[in-house]
Structure formats: C-alpha cells, structure tokens
Fold:
Amino acid sequence: MRNDLDQDLRASLEEPVPSASPLDQAHLLQHRSAVLREENDLSRMEPDALRRLRILYRVLSVLVACGIVGTLLWGVADLPAFGGGANPTENEVMDRYLSEGMREGGATNLVANMILDYRAFDTLGESHVLFTAACAVLLLLSREPERGDLSRSVPEADAPADPVLVFTARVLCPALLLFGLYVVLNGHLGPGGGFSGGTVMGAALILYRCAFGRRRASAFLSLRGCRTLTGAALAFYALSKAWSFFTGANHLPSGIGPGTPGAILSAGLILPLNIAVGCVVCCTMYGFFALFEESGILPEGDGSSGRSRPEPGSSRFRKGGAEA
Amino acid sequence: MNLSMLWENRPQAAAVILFGIGLATLLLNQNLIRKIIGFSFMDSAVFLFLASEGYIAGRAAPIQNPASPLPASAFVNPIPAGLVLTGIVVSVSVTALMLALTVRLWQRYHTLNLDEIIRLARREEE
Structure:
C-alpha cells in the first residue's frame, strides 16, 4: 500500500503540467515542495497504521452504505403495493388537478397545468435555482487569472474538428433545434414543456459549439446574450405571474383566460411561461458548457495558448481573495 | 421483513439499491469527479423512487382529451412528475456547481485526490 502511495506521489510529481505561466510555475514549485515534504512525512509514518486506517475506512464505508440500504429496504417492504390506485399518495389533491385542471388552466397536458398554473410560483423558484447556479459557476470560473472579461470573445484559432462530428452536427443541429422548439411550443397540448424542450435546444447548441468552434457559436449565442435572455425570461415570468396573482387575489379581471383547450393559443399564461422557462433552461445548459470549456479544462480547449501568454492581469491571482 | 411485498415494490427497492451504490461511490472514492458521479447516482435514485410512487397500474399519462374529457380515475398521479422535474433541475444546478468548484481546486492544487488536496491546504495554512 505504501509503495502504491509512493508511486502515486511520484507519478503526480513527474506529470508535466502544460505550459504554465510564470506565476503558475512559482505556485507549482511551492506545490511540489509541499508534496515532497509530505512524501517524507508519509514514509516516516508507520505504514501498517496507515494501511489499517485505510482498510478500516473502506470497511466502515461499505458497512454504512449497506446499513442504510438495508434500513431503506425494510421500509420499502412496508410500503403500500406498487401501482395501487388506493395508496395514500393518490389522494384528493391529485383528483382535483386531474378533474378540474383542463377547465381551470386550459392546458390538456395536466402536468404543465400543475407546474405552470397551480404551482407556478414553485417553478419560478426552480428557474431561479438554475439562474443562481449559472451565476455561481460564472463567478467561480471567471476568476481565472489570465482572463479579464468572460463575455469578451477570446481570439483564438479553433482546432479543426472531426469531419464525422461536423457532418453529424450539420444534419442534427437544425432537427434538434426544431424539435426542441416543437416540444416547448407544444408543452400545454402534449408531453413536453419548457424544461424538456429547453434541454433539447441546449444540447443542440452544445453540439453546434463542439463541431464549429466557439467563435461561430458565440456569434449565434454569446455568454452575454445568454445572460440577457435568461434575465429577460425570468423578469417576464415574474411580472406576468405577479399580474396574474395580483388580479386573481383581488378578484379583478386579469384578461387571461384558459381559452379553448386543445388549441395552440390557449391555456392563458402557460404557453408564454413555457417559452420563458425554455429560454432559461436552454441558456443555462449552453452557458454551463461554454463556461467549462472556456475555463480551459476540456481537452483541446485552446486554454494553453492563453496560459503561456504573460498578462498584466495575472497579478490578480495573488490578491484574488481580496478582489473576490 | 416481508419479502413478497419487497418483490411487489421492486421499483422502489431498485431505487434504494441505486441510492446505496451512489453512497458507496461517494464514500469509497477519493477522486472528486467520482464523488460527484456518486452524488448524481443518489439523485437519480430519488427521482426513480418518486416517479414510481406516482404510478398507478392500468392508468394513462395525464394528457387530457379536449373533445371528450376523461375522469380523474383514468390518469396516473401528476404530482410526482412535477416534483421530479424540480429535482432534476436542482440536481443539474448542484452538479454544475460542484464541478465548477472542482475546477477551481484543480487549478490551485493540480490534483483531484481529496486527501492530497486536504494535505496541501493544511500545508498552506501553516
């Protein structure tokens, strides 16, 4: 076990870290000396004790996992039978949503009715979770020293993509985008909605970016555009739902009715809200991918060209804590 | 333990076992990416459990026919579907956040091994 550890440490030491900036190299030296010191510590440590500790940890982990699974299985065995119509979970709330949903909300897809009409507030929070996560990822990844503004497109030569990938993307991207749009716009009439359709569209954009490089993808939808679109969609969602709640609570005419169930322009706010949610989800999925790619961790991400270039902004790294 | 009921509830049992696999992955691996994969396993297990709770044998997906509306007894429970939707969104966000944090750790310590990261961080504190 100790030999394994030593080998690991040595391998990590010999592993070349590609083209670090001068600052990175200083940091790396510090890191390497720390690892060396640690290696000495480890060899001084009683190998038997270390091994025993690791074995004990693994055994305990397995025991804990098995214990939790056993307890939960015990509980599952006492649950009411799977698929039973009289189970306590199938109660009057569900009956109400199913029997009155189409008359009150106007959508034939009763799940869309539930999440965008009865529980629209919940879905607004959900969209904000996505938005918050996107903001947090942006904050975390844009603190990289060699890049100032994330939204500014970094001029670089994209590596020539695989011809199979390019051909597949050329065939699939329009179909995927169209299908995603269909799923979003049809969300109140059949299976689908903003979340699923937005994911399909986001996947199409990611495929496009993989095949044609970030510059052409940014021309279509930049990170700044993503943020603007997300913000606008969330603001529209919040304002329209605020209007609907305000008028509904005060018994005022809101001008929003369920319409004719089954028609494409029906179900009141559900169709526009589906579009808003679709925008948020699509932009967030695509934004996650773009941010991770631009942080230079993906292979062939061209982050190395930016790394080797010394930049005046690299001193931010030292006082990064204060600036953040 | 009632084994025939356990067999009857096998979707939920499968979800619980999947949860255990995810938990074991989370505990046994020192690599941060593998820990995140284990976490995603646990998320999926919860979604499977919720979705199977909403199933009612012999009933259809809750898409109403506008011409001749069907009674509520024709459809499965729509509430778990909405809850799972919420859960998937949150799990995607949390996974992205965890991966972003991992990227930051990698940039600082050039390793994904949690033990090593903790050791190095301790060294830096000294």
Summary: Residues 106-299 of chain A form one domain. Chain A has twelve helices and no strands. Confidence is low (pLDDT under 50) at residues 145-155, 298-324 of chain A. The first helix of chain A runs from residue 2 to 14.
